Amino acid sequence: MEILGYFSAIFVGLTLGLIGGGGSILTVPILVYLMGVTPVNATAYSLFIVGLTSLIGASAYMKKKLVNFMAAVVFAIPAFSAVFVARMFIVPAIPDQIWDLGFIVITKDLFIMVLFAVLMFFSSYFMIKDKRVEVETQKIEFNYPMIIMEGILVGTLTGLVGAGGGFLIIPALVLLAKLPMKMAVGTSLLIIAVNSLIGFMGDIGAHRIIDWKLLSIFSVMAVAGIIAGSILSKYISGAKLKPAFGWFVMIMSIYILGKELIFH
Length: 264
Fold this sequence. Notes:
Blueprint: H1 2-19, H2 27-33, H3 39-63, H4 69-93, E1 97-100, E2 105-107, H5 108-129, H6 144-161, H7 166-176, H8 181-205, H9 212-232, H10 238-261
Antiparallel strand pairs: 1-2
Helix pairs in contact: 1-9, 2-3, 3-6, 3-8, 3-9, 4-6, 4-8, 5-10, 6-7, 7-8
């Protein structure tokens, strides 16, 4: 199962390279169900893996000058703060047993996996329904209060479940900062990269035990996948692949909910 998990890491990177996002949403389930990592540690590992792969993806957009650094800073400061606080203080403060309902005990691990599955479901919905068309706006404008609120929301979710939150960040940059779509994707990758890596620093600060061997091998495989995906993206339409991948993620989210809540 461990070998299958490492090969699945290639799929995570491949998806990110082909469709510009979404693959990282599978990192936590792969780590938990194939690698045997606990949900809390899986969210920590996911932050590092997502951060590294997103940084590589963002660098390609930087070369094309498709990253708006001002938008990244405005969005990222509240997001960085929220994700660090979530990993350093909120996650460690959640009790191992949250609630005993009699027929089911809500543990910390169960709460994280259910929250993650719900996030997966909404992420898949947006991937399936994504009909956005590239529109060049005349002037980039910032709705500062809404961007700050969105940044705090994304940062908190990223800290809790270890996912990048690109499906929330990209629409926010398009609607609240008036960025063109391609620039929103590039800027989102940069935000996700720094956001995730800062969240991982919160785990190190909380003295979490890290399996560096597993994390290193998984990360290398994911990076190999994103490089391969970037090359294949020249020949395969990411827009056509995204809905199909969205359905796959939706099925996975339903499977996790069933496994954790019904067949646990």
